């Protein structure tokens, strides 16, 4: 039976779960549910377009999560610090998940209705979600909430500045398929000898 002809009430969801194992030792139990979307009424081109667009969103989210994790590490420790920072990634994914599914639902509804959904506004919205969430988590959950006597304000400020630079930089924009501003080119400086010649 196809998803669009189901007889159960409410949307269908996929439940995935399992242990994180390390050398036959259970370290943690993970579980998550994902919504299932019926796309049978969408054209093949629309489905491929949706897949490509969601791929961009996920690639951008992966980059933003990496930037956040690195910034937290830089704010608290040296650059070569080791340890498990997976809680940073988990918090980021959890915080961005509702907005992701809201935008995805709008995109799918447009595809089902045959509406040519311009991708740029959705990408810009998603970029804003990623940047705001990463900065908020950095400030409120991982760095700004720590005991002041244990912090290094200079290190935290530099990490925050680098995080902001990365979140609004060209690499993340390219991953999301957003236009990247061309770097401003500096006019060549005139040598003193050339300036004297032009003045003569």
Task: Describe the protein's architecture and organization.
This protein is mainly alpha-helical. It contains 6 helices and 2 strands. The chain has helices at 44-76, 86-112, 119-142, 153-167, 170-176, 192-199; strands spanning 13-22, 25-35. Helix 1 (44-76) runs antiparallel to helix 2, helix 1 packs parallel to helix 3 and helix 2 packs antiparallel against helix 3 (119-142). The chain starts with 12 loop residues before the first strand and ends with a helix.
Brief digest:
This protein has 200 residues and is mostly helical.
Spell out the key features of this protein.
mainly alpha, two-stranded antiparallel sheet, 6 helices, 2 strands, 200 residues, 10% strand, globular
List low-pLDDT spans. Answer: 1-8
| Share in helix | 55-70%
Q: Structural class, judged by helices and strands? A: mainly alpha
Q: Radius of gyration over alpha carbons?
A: 23 Å
Mean pLDDT, nearest integer? 82
The main pleated sheet reads as: 2 strands, antiparallel
Q: Biggest sheet: strands side by side, in what order?
A: 1-2
Give the helices and strands as they follow along the chain: EEHHHHHH
How many H/I helices? 6
Termini Cα gap: 87 Å
**What does the overall shape look like?**
globular
Strand content: 5-15%
| Number of E-type strands | 2
């Amino acid at each position: 039976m196809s998803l669009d002809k189901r007889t159960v009430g409410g949307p269908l969801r996929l439940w995935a779960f399992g242990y994180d194992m390390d050398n036959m030792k259970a370290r943690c139990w993970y579980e998550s549910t994902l919504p299932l979307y019926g796309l049978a009424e969408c054209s093949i081109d629309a489905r491929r377009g949706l897949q490509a667009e969601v791929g961009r969103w996920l690639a951008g989210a992966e980059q933003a999560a990496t930037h956040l994790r690195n910034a937290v590490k830089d704010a608290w420790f040296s650059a070569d610090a080791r340890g498990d920072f997976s809680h940073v990634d988990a918090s980021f994914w959890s915080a961005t998940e509702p907005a992701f599914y809201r935008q995805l639902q709008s995109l799918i509804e447009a595809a089902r209705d045959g509406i040519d959904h311009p991708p740029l506004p959705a990408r810009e919205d998603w970029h804003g979600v990623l940047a705001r969430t990463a900065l908020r988590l950095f400030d409120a959950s991982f760095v700004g909430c720590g005991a002041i006597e244990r912090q290094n304000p200079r290190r935290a400020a530099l990490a925050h500045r680098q995080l902001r630079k990365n979140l609004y930089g060209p690499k993340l924009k390219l991953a999301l398929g957003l236009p990247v501003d061309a770097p401003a080119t500096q006019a060549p400086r005139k040598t003193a000898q050339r300036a004297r010649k032009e003045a003569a």
